[in-house]
Amino acid sequence: MKKLFVRLYFFVMFLFMYLPIIVLIGLSFNASRARTVWGGFTLEWYAELFQDSVLLTSLFNTLSIALISAAVSTLIAVPAAIGLLAMKRRHASVIQNFGNIPMLNPDIVTGIILMLLLSSAMKLGYVSILLAHITFNIPYVLLSVLPSLKKVNISIFEAARDLGAGSLYAFIKVVLPEIMPGILSGFFMAITLSMDDFVVTYFTRGAGIDTLSTLVYGQLKRGIKPEMYALSSVIFITVLLALVAFNILSSASERGSYEGSKANITGDKTPLIKEEEK
User: Fold this and answer.
1) Same domain, 29 and 81
2) What is the pLDDT of residues 49-83, one digit of tens each?
3) How far apart are CA 171 and CA 161, in angstroms?
């Protein structure tokens, strides 16, 4: 009875999470423009998707802003994390608390503040959206990198320095591989937050430029085009395949590392056994 309840619970949970996505994918193949009427199977919306210049431009803006803002945020957050770790605990705590304010602020407050600040220095557009996304992404990347950095054994870094390695070389060879999971986690989190953001983007975008979120908001008054269902389906399937591939590669890498370490242990013991037999 308990197993049945657990299975039913997880089934309902996953159904609640993925049923809207399944419906969305189904609508992308619906020949009718009405969401409540099934007009037959069609690939028309996928064909029109690649002919819609407005939609493709918005997609390009969304992806380019997400990738650039995530990369710049990571480049800023990693040295900041190292600096915080080298500071006294009290000073680092104060700076980190101030740095966490953008995460605690409501999006509408952050959007209005950034709009007022950026509009006084430049014309709102692509660059203003990019700067705004970098601003709210930095604390999230920093929060992801810091725990990984705290786990690093500083003695290994100091040993590399004692053996003649320069500070930068020792950091790249010793510290960077250890904190890479945290860096990648923060980088992909920043991409997700950037692509998902609407409020800050809406306030800092200016006229004549759209991302996918602001484009959808603009289409709500006239009705969302079926091409948007097709694009959403393509994005979801692409992300799903990327996650599956990443998990497969990670599993293969871990299995290879385990087999390699097992072989090394076996190889070390074999000569000793032969010597004892002699």
Assistant:
1) no
2) 888 888 888 889 999 999 999 999 999 999 988 88
3) 10
